[in-house]
Amino acid sequence: MFATLSSPLFFTAWASGTATGLGLFAVVGAQSAFILRQGLMRAHLLSVVAICALIDAIFIFASVSGLQALTSWFPWLTTAVLWFGVAFLSWYALQSARRAWTATGGLAAARDVVPSRRAAMLGALGFSLLNPHFWLDMVVVGSLAHGFEDARMAFAAGAFTASLLWLAVLGIGSRLFAPFFASASAWRILDGLIAVVMAALAISLALKGV
């Protein structure tokens, strides 16, 4: 049995899920930095945001439905994802550092090196599924949702609402800040900051794995 839409418990669970989701998702991590750069480049932003939203929806509701059981049955999955994440983040940090070192233009130059839609969508998949923090967030959402019993799916809906809100903020924000990135120096600073964020995440994950 699940709580109905008119039930006070449904709204309470939804609001709690939204607040929890914003607390977990509204950070400038690997996925957020990737979306911001795609938006500033005007490179398949809608496709990237759609992929991220779809992944969040699938795994938020799957987590509430029993994703935690999967990691308990196959504990090696956690370690495998962690080290894949370290490798992926390290590679992207190096790519960002290279762009920061060799930048030759602003938005116009960025448009000249826009990756294909397929590459952009694969990047969105990688920054979600190869990010151990993503899996940790899903486990947290699943754990907290079960405290609402029959309204746990309302909690999941709230967490997904938070995901959509944060993705919208990233998408709209990247467009609003686009004029500030008309110069090569702004892009070099952005890529330098992204390289630092990715490298720091890779190092912190690697330290957890040793």
UniProtKB/TrEMBL annotation:
This is Arginine exporter protein ArgO. GO terms for cellular component: plasma membrane. It is a multi-pass membrane protein. InterPro entries: LeuE-type (IPR001123). It is found in: Cell membrane. Keywords: Cell membrane, Membrane, Transmembrane, Transmembrane helix. The keyword rRNA processing does not apply. The keyword Cytoplasm does not apply. The chain crosses the membrane at residues 12-36, 43-67, 73-94, 119-136, 156-177, 189-207. The lineage of its organism: Bacteria, Pseudomonadati, Pseudomonadota, Betaproteobacteria, Burkholderiales. One of its GO terms (molecular function) is amino acid transmembrane transporter activity.
